[in-house]
Amino acid sequence: MNSKRVFSAVLFAALMCGCSSNDMTPAQAKSVLNDFFAKNPQTNKVLTGMNNIGTDPVAAHWDTPDGKYQKAMEAAGLVTITPPKGKIFNPQNHSQWMYALDVKLTDKGKKLVTGKPQVIPAPSKNTWDTVYENATFCTKEVVNIASISTNDDYARAEYTYKFGNFTPFYDSFHVADPKDTTTCPTQPQEATAGFDRKNGVWSLSPQ
To answer: Are strands 93-105 and 88-90 parallel, antiparallel or unpaired?
Structure first.
């Protein structure tokens, strides 16, 4: 092909995207964002271990939001729930007591948690630590890059993303609370991201 035509074609493409060959491209921004989203899924806390459910009849617990969620997770094979074997009394005052469930992740559930669990130390010797696992609910995915501005080795992009890859933890959560619209919403969302370039490689700027 004639070298003048090749140069003209490259120049025309650069003018069409409004950027120079040194600018960050929409494809680069989308790749960096999607890679970050894949490594950092959206999570929600799930209580495991001993769960104080108070002094109401155990059957009444299953009608509470927490109880419905636990039952849905159990039905999905994510956790096992051992019912109370009896009342747990305060050794210092036997007029104080509670029921407690023992909630454990199954092998299936363990594959869908990420990071270190949050452990809240036991408030007293006769109780136990509260443990919350980070259960993966969904991931983000870029729909489109609306605009990019590049200044030397810094770039800023306006983009739209959606949620996907919904897990059984997400499904169980919505079985228990079908009216929720804020957890991994189905409507596309708009956002802005900053990027830094080092040694020719773009990465997300620290937030």
So the answer is: antiparallel
Amino acid at 140: K
Q: Can you tell me the distance from the alpha carbon of 72 to that of 79, in angstroms, rounded to the nearest whole number?
A: 9
143: closest CA among 160, 128, 124?
160
192: left (phi over 0), alpha (psi -120 to 50) or beta: beta
Amino acid identity, residue 35?
D
| Secondary structure (DSSP) of 14-69 | HHHHT--TTSPPHHHHHHHHHHHHHHS-EEEEEEEEEEEEESS-HHHHTTSHHHHH
Do the Cβ atoms of 91 and 199 come closer than 8 Å?
no
Q: Rounded to 5 degrees, what angle do the CA atoms 90, 95, 97 make? A: 50
Render pLDDT for 156-203 as a digit per residue (tens, 0 to 9): 999 999 999 999 999 999 999 999 989 999 899 999 999 999 999 999
Report whether 127 contacts 97 (CB < 8 A): no
Burial class (CB in 10 A: 0-12, 13-18, 19+), 186: exposed
Q: What is the pLDDT of residues 137-154, one digit of tens each?
A: 999 999 999 999 999 999
Query: Which residue stretches of the chain are H helix?
Result: 3-17, 26-39, 58-61, 65-75, 107-110, 168-176
